[in-house]
Amino acid sequence: MDEFVKTLIKDHLGSFMDKSRDRLALTDEDYVKDNKDAGILENRYKALSLSESDRMVIDDYVACLLSRESLMADISYLSGVSDCIKLLHRIGAIKDLGE
User: Fold this and answer.
1) pTM for the whole structure
2) Rounded to the nearest 10 degrees, what angle do helices 14-27 and 29-47 cross at?
């Protein structure tokens, strides 16, 4: 069953996941506030007088954090979908999983 779930996720959930998550995020007050705050802080950061090498280290660090968090969000979402499919199969709500 794990292979079926992996195939389902890989072949069918990518764009659905993005649309669903984006729709929820844009209506979440905390996310919207954090997003606004991030824009303000980015402008303050850009106004700092930093050397090019210092700015590059900070930019690389922030990019790494953002990438890691984005991947963890995807992993968490997909884990939830996988768990849901397995639970529905276990209780008999989904019959044939290509086994």
Assistant:
1) 0.69
2) 90
